[in-house]
């Protein structure tokens, strides 16, 4: 009877556990168990077809519930996208389960050393597939397993060396160890028959290794982190005024709503006007993605740029913001070549003499380098959303033109934007637009380009007010630790906040009519609101100017995982299997 209910039970457990592990439920413990029933079933050597189809159903179900917020995007198209994307992502689970099913009978009678190598190979194969998920067909690396620990960044410190892949590897290895490292001994070392179906009390090397690796890596990471001779006391660098206009995405570009949307944005910004001694004084105002309802670059942008420059002169505070920029027409053409999704800085201006007074007379500044108006530097979004900002194979899918009438153009390279706080030195902001913070390589590029802190401007209003924007914010915690750069986020309706270099998050929340920033585990209220808040950004001097191992060497752990997977395959291929279990 138990065996009959194991397939659907394992699938349901996978769906429920993986859904609970991520926002909005944040039950991180579930990610340590989610694979165990499916792995246990694989060691019972089920029929291949039944096993893989059940795995596919489990993957579809889990992603369907995790990404349920997709239904809000261009309904009913969002429902179609949700179903198709869930099915596509489930294929990666099927690819991993196929390897588990192939390896299971070969591990049953293997020696402890060979069995441990097989489990390490399977954990490596998960990492390789997860990496492929972030690259194939433009890539969608949403919610790697490491993101489940976003509220507990002390557990994520090793990713400054391994990237997110190191924690995902250990999570999978722990799940495998729960099955293969508990129960009756079945290795060739003990000369015993295959372990029983139920789990008697036993803890073997297969479960001890991932536990020791995890805590060993965490302790080593923290020891190396605090080995610097530099002071570890946080140093304030910036006060940022966050503006959440909460403009509905469906009304954002409606022509009749443009004036109303602009007035809302500017009205929310005005309290940050510089006044001597005011508690609302900030060094920088941050708007979300595509904040102004008009282009600020290109052939039609001149009057809007002039207006923004004049308004910022009254504000007397620089504004960093996302906006649409038009590409100039191609030679001989009359229409713009397309739009960019960009980040700009407009500033009230500072003379070279004032800059030298602040930075020291020996500093070499070109005339006009810090002049008022739009900064010369700007950033264009590099990784566009397929079927949202462009349509792959548009000529073959003409009906999608009703939803995405034109293609946005991608930027070409990383670009930092210099900002000078009152009485401080120049800081370089590394912008990421929309969902670019889910791509570790883009944050890494900005760190290598010289960013002192990362800035994420996004419009998650498309996701509704469920778990979408919280899931999105979890990736910024990973990027902060991987690069050891603070992250400042500004969303149209949330999640806005600050994440320090250790990964501690401080969201802006509205509770009992008050907007405040507090540590995420103590935060009360909702991140979804219309209003403004102030974030105090600080850095740890021991990370100043330092590049992490991950920033320097990138996804080296993926290459190591691929070698481990290949080595495990070659070893297990020669292993004798228990008769009749292939």
Radius of gyration, in angstroms, nearest whole number: 26 Å
Largest beta sheet, briefly?
A: 8 strands, mixed
Number of separate structural domains: 2
Q: Hey, roughly how much beta strand do the residues contain? A: 5-15%
Number of helices: 15
Quickly give the CATH architecture of the largest domain: 4-Layer Sandwich
- CATH fold-level assignment of the largest domain: Nitrilase/N-carbamoyl-D-aminoacid amidohydrolase
- CATH class designation of the largest domain: Alpha Beta
| CATH homologous superfamily assignment of the largest domain | Carbon-nitrogen hydrolase
Helix content: 25-40%
Characterize the overall form: globular
How are the SSEs ordered, and which strands pair?
Elements: H1 2-21, H2 36-42, H3 48-66, H4 77-108, H5 112-133, H6 159-162, H7 164-180, H8 205-225, E1 235-244, H9 258-269, E2 284-286, H10 302-315, E3 319-327, E4 338-347, H11 352-359, E5 373-374, E6 379-380, E7 408-409, E8 417-419, E9 427-433, H12 440-448, E10 453-458, H13 468-483, E11 487-491, E12 497-499, E13 505-511, E14 514-517, E15 531-539, H14 549-553, H15 556-573
Parallel strand pairs: 1-2, 2-3, 4-7, 9-10, 10-11
Antiparallel strand pairs: 1-15, 3-4, 4-5, 4-6, 8-9, 11-12, 12-13, 13-14
Helix pairs in contact: 1-2, 1-3, 2-7, 3-4, 4-5, 5-7, 5-15, 7-8, 12-13
């Amino acid at each position: 009877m138990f065996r009959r209910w194991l397939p659907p039970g394992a699938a349901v457990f996978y769906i429920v556990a993986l859904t609970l592990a991520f926002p909005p439920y944040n039950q991180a413990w579930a990610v340590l168990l989610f694979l165990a029933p499916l792995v246990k079933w694989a060691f019972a050597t089920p029929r291949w077809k039944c096993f893989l189809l059940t795995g596919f159903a489990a993957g579809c179900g889990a992603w369907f519930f995790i990404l349920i917020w997709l239904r809000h995007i261009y309904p009913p198209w969002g429902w179609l996208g949700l179903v198709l994307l869930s099915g596509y992502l489930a294929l990666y689970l099927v690819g991993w389960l196929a390897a588990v099913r192939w390896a299971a009978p070969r591990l049953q009678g293997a020696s402890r050393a060979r069995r441990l190598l097989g489990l390490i190979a399977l954990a490596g194969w998960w990492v390789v597939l997860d990496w492929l998920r972030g690259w194939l067909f433009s890539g969608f690396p949403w919610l790697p397993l490491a993101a489940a620990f976003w509220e507990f960044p002390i557990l994520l410190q090793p990713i400054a060396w391994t990237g997110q892949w190191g924690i995902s590897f250990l999570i999978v290895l722990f799940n495998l160890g729960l099955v293969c490292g508990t129960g009756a001994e079945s290795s060739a070392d003990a000369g015993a028959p295959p372990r029983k179906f139920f789990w008697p009390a036993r803890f073997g090397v297969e479960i001890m290794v991932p536990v020791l690796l995890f805590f060993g890596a965490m302790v080593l990471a923290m020891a190396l982190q605090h080995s610097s001779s530099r002071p570890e006391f946080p140093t304030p660098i910036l006060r940022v005024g966050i503006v959440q206009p909460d403009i509905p995405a469906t009304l954002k570009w409606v022509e009749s709503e443009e004036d109303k949307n602009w007035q809302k944005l500017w009205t929310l910004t005005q309290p940050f006007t510089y006044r001597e001694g005011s508690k609302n004084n900030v060094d920088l105002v941050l708007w979300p993605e595509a904040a102004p309802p008009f282009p600020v670059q290109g052939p039609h942008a001149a009057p809007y740029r002039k207006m923004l420059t004049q308004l910022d002169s009254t504000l007397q505070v620089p504004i960093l913001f996302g906006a649409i920029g038009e590409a100039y027409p191609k030679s001989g053409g009359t229409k713009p070549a397309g739009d960019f999704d960009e980040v700009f800085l407009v500033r009230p201006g500072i003379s070279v003499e004032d800059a030298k007074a602040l930075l020291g007379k020996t500093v070499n500044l070109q005339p006009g380098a810090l002049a008022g108006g739009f900064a010369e530097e700007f950033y264009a979004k590099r990784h566009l959303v397929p079927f949202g900002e462009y349509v792959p194979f548009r000529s073959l899918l003409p009906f999608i033109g009703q939803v995405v009438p034109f293609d946005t153009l991608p930027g070409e390279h990383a670009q930092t934007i210099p900002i000078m706080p009152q009485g401080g030195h120049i800081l370089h902001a590394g912008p990421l637009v929309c969902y670019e913070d889910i791509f570790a390589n883009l944050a890494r590029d900005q760190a290598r380009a010289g960013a002192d802190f990362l800035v994420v401007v996004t419009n998650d209003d498309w996701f509704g007010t469920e778990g979408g924007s919280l899931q999105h914010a979890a990736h910024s915690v990973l990027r902060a630790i991987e690069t050891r750069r603070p992250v400042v986020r500004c969303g149209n309706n949330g999640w806005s906040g600050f994440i320090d270099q250790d990964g501690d998050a401080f969201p802006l929340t509205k509770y009992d009519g008050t907007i405040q920033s507090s540590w995420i585990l103590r935060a009360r209220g909702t991140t979804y609101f219309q209003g403004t808040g102030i974030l105090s950004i600080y850095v740890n001097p021991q990370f100043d100017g330092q590049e992490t191992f991950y920033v320097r060497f990138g996804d080296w752990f993926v290459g190591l995982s691929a070698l481990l997977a290949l080595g495990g395959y070659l070893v297990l291929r020669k292993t004798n299997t228990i008769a009749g279990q292939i």
